[in-house]
Design goal:
Helix 8 (179-192) crosses helix 10 (213-226). 48% of the residues lie in helices and 9% in strands. The chain starts with a helix and ends in an 8-residue tail after the last helix. With 558 residues, it is of the alpha/beta class. The strands form 3 sheets. Strands 2-3-4-1-5 form a 5-stranded parallel sheet, with helices on one face. It is elongated and about 105 Å long.
Length: 558
């Protein structure tokens, strides 16, 4: 009978356990020094190796010839525990045996010495499912069990355990297994199974598994059922994932406010039987990756994606602010929470994408804040919005009360109003015009330029705006100051990196664009130098007199 991969390749020794070195090292040392505790508590998320380590510990504690703290796997005790012929190791599921009667059976059994092994080991999985009466019945035995008994409790929800149980156990917290460790393990398993698995597919499986090696091996099992040559396309097909290309295209539709194209992509993915809830969750994870790129110093160590995908994500970040990214995640997360509650999943996702690509339809405070920020930027750029552009219903106009001004005693003749030309409405989404190249300053005007320089109060806001370009560029100007003089913006910085950035045309142009977004003005950039104080020209005769006076020689005046 075929055995699934996560059972077939379950680790047999502590050395085979992936990503839990902080636990396996401690357990091996306890075996070597013969300092075993009477009660252990293994806690952590699913698929991280709790039950596996419990079984290895049970074998190592009873092994006739352990090797460096791990079971040998060859003695009769190890083989008996493996095939189930040694009845001194009992594995119990607390979800099925959770009542006080089940615990009483264990209490009665622990009084008898083991039949073949050195210790009688009880592995209680999902221990948080026990009833309160069962926990109370177990307390005394768990605190002072016989010398030949070891309890190993495992749970995914340690917060549900009574404090009296926690205080009687040696606790080990299992971490989520790092993606690279999962990828290395499944690459090894694929090689043993004579299956070709690409590195990109292995990392994609590790990302979907979310720190659970058992889930990764189960997904690999499904991939093998599709093809023996597994690439990223096979993994996406087995996991029901949308191609990353569609995630980037949907993101571009949101950024470019192209609602029609976003709906076309949703229709196409729905026709390909893609799970809409899973697609929504993937979009949240996609924008989370963009958020981390914009806010974390070394995001490459956190994100599970290929190098080409990381470069695409970095490019996409240049068109988004951190506030926009968080807002997109919030709208999609709310849509994901509502899925399955009456409205179809596809409808919920379509409504979320319409809100993001047409933000005027969203009435939340976050949406108002985003539109207000965009309006402020437009005003700073000098873009005017005429009153004629705003829509007012005719009913509201008719019902609007007319305010009557009180008549003056000596009314003045009203000046003749000249009809002003209406401002031409401009669209807020105009393409950004490149700023003109700075003209070099004349050498003879430099001193006057520095002397007339005035502090530039908007400089901190400019530094904050540089984060949308690059966090490293913004950090280079932290602590600096700027001065305005004519058409120049002179920068005073102690960091030499700031002036190195100004030497490159592309960086200089980006900084000038940020300044234009903040102030609506275009400046030439340059370094600031405090004006030198003019040296007073002293009379040579006076200098001679001062020198003689300093020497104690009197000077006669004629």
């Amino acid at each position: 009978m075929y055995q699934v991969l996560y059972r077939k390749w379950r680790p047999k020794t502590f050395e085979d356990v992936a990503g839990q070195e902080h636990i396996t090292t401690t357990l091996k040392n306890e075996i070597i020094e013969n300092r075993l505790n009477h009660a252990y508590l293994f806690t952590g998320s699913r698929g991280t190796g709790k039950t596996t380590c419990a079984k290895i510990l049970a074998k190592a504690a009873n092994c006739l010839s352990p090797k460096n703290g791990s079971p040998c796997g060859e003695c009769e005790i190890c083989r008996g525990i493996e095939n189930g012929s040694v009845l001194d190791v009992v594995e119990m599921d607390a979800a099925s045996n959770r009542n006080i009667d089940d615990i009483r059976d264990i209490i009665d059994e622990v009084q008898f010495k083991p039949n073949r092994a050195r210790y009688r080991v009880y592995i209680v999985d999902e221990v948080h499912m026990l009833t309160v009466q069962a926990f109370n019945a177990l307390l005394k035995t768990l605190e002072e069990p016989p010398e030949h008994v070891i309890f190993i409790l495992a749970t995914t929800e340690v917060h549900k355990l009574p404090q009296t149980i926690l205080s009687r156990c040696q606790r080990f917290d299992f971490h989520r297994i790092p993606p690279q460790d999962i990828a290395d393990r499944i690459l090894f398993v694929a090689g043993q199974e004579n299956v070709t698995l690409s590195d990109g597919a292995a990392m994609l499986i590790a990302g979907v598994a979310d720190g659970a090696l058992r889930d990764a091996l189960s997904l690999l099992d499904r991939c093998i059922a599709i093809s023996d040559n597994i690439d990223e396309k096979v993994v996406r097909q087995a996991a029901g994932l949308a191609d990353k290309k569609y995630l980037y295209e949907l993101s571009a539709c949101i950024i470019n406010k192209n609602t029609a194209r976003a709906m076309e992509y949703i229709d196409r993915l729905y026709g390909e039987s893609k799970d809409m809830a899973r697609l929504c969750d993937e979009l949240v994870a996609h924008f989370r990756a963009l958020m981390l790129i914009k806010s974390v110093r070394n995001p490459r160590n956190i994100l599970v994606m290929s190098d080409s995908e990381f470069e695409q994500a970095q490019t996409l970040c240049d068109y988004l602010s951190l506030a926009d990214t968080v807002y997109y995640m919030d709208v999609l997360a709310r849509a994901f929470q509502r899925m399955g509650r009456g409205t179809g999943d596809r409808t919920e996702l379509e409504m979320a994408l319409v809100k993001l690509s047409a933000p005027e339809l969203d009435s939340t405070n976050e949406a108002f804040a985003a539109r207000l920020t965009a309006l402020e930027r437009a005003v700073k750029r000098g873009i005017t919005v005429s009153a004629e552009q705003s829509y007012v219903p005719e009913e509201a106009k008719a019902e609007e009360p007319v305010k009557e001004e009180p008549a003056e005693e000596n009314p003045k003749p009203e000046p003749v109003k000249q009809e002003q030309p209406k401002p031409v409405p401009q669209k807020a989404e105009q393409p950004k015009q490149p700023s003109p190249a700075p003209q070099p300053a004349q050498a003879q005007n430099l001193d006057e330029l520095y002397r007339n320089a005035k502090p530039f109060p908007e400089w901190p806001e400019v530094i904050e705006g540089m984060k949308s370009i690059s966090k490293s560029i913004s950090a280079a100007f932290v602590g600096s100051a700027a001065y305005e003089s004519g058409g120049y913006l002179l920068i005073d910085a102690n960091n030499t990196m700031a002036f190195e950035l100004l030497r490159y045309r592309n960086h200089r142009q980006e900084i000038r664009d940020v300044i234009r977004d903040v102030t609506g003005k275009v400046y030439n950039l340059g370094p600031y130098r405090p004006p030198e104080k003019e040296k007073e020209v002293q009379d040579p005769m006076q200098q001679f007199k001062d020198a003689l006076s300093g020497s104690g020689i009197a000077v006669e005046e004629n």
